[in-house]
Design brief:
The chain has helices spanning 12-30, 37-44, 57-83, 88-105, 107-113, 124-141, 151-170, 183-194. It contains 8 helices and no strands.
């Protein structure tokens, strides 16, 4: 009779990460209703009491998962920026593409991170992570901010455009314009909408900056 292989013990330093990744998996597989501390612990292969040592209940776990979501969100935008056309407008459109790609690949995380009011988050660190995730958009909008205009104005214009499209796309609202299952058609519609960014006059004031 084969002897079952013992579970590998989790080191104290990576147990929190293992629980967060288990939580992300539960979210993606079953949505918010599937996320519980007990299920998260079971998936991570630890006792059901283990999450209590790292999180303040389920809200604390959700905040940690949201922080992970913001990091992934940023990485998608930066990766798309690096691969795209290296002009101010090209970088701006590329991060918008990364924005959509993140949402496509991480639907549950997308709804989770944008469902939080960061100003009211019990963890000050989450607001910092949210700002970190937002930084590529802010940087790529900078070359289009007219002198004397608050950067937030242009950022809000671009953010509203890409977030609005992405949210409607995920909700299946474009079935009259294209089949969301047809990626090529969806990409074509996305490009047509993002062409509105061509109306932004380049000011020549911003620099690409550090992509890290």
């Amino acid at each position: 009779m084969a002897v079952p292989e013992p579970k590998k013990p989790h080191h104290h330093g990576n147990l929190r990460e293992a629980l967060v990744l288990a939580g992300v998996q539960l979210l993606e597989q079953g949505g918010p209703e599937a996320l519980t501390l007990r299920r998260c612990a079971a998936l991570a292969g630890v006792s059901h009491a283990a999450p209590a040592h790292h999180f303040d209940g389920l809200p604390g776990l959700k905040l940690a998962i949201a922080a992970e979501g913001f990091r992934r969100f940023r990485n998608y935008m930066v990766d798309a920026e690096v691969l795209g056309e290296q002009t101010p407008r090209g970088r701006l459109k590329s991060i918008c593409r990364g924005y959509l790609n993140f949402a496509r690949d991480n639907r549950a995380l997308f709804w989770l991170i944008f469902g939080y009011d960061l100003s009211e988050a019990p963890s000050a660190g989450l607001s910092d992570v949210g700002a970190y995730g937002y930084a590529p958009l802010r940087r790529c909008c900078a070359p289009f901010v007219p002198a004397g205009t608050a950067p937030e104005v242009v950022e809000a214009q671009v953010w509203s455009l890409v977030h609005g499209f992405t949210s409607l796309y995920l909700s299946g609202r474009f079935r009259g314009a294209c089949d969301p299952a047809d990626e090529a058609a969806a990409n074509g519609l996305f490009d047509a909408v993002m062409a509105l960014l061509d109306a932004l006059p380049e000011q020549g004031l911003g620099k690409p900056g550090d992509l890290a």
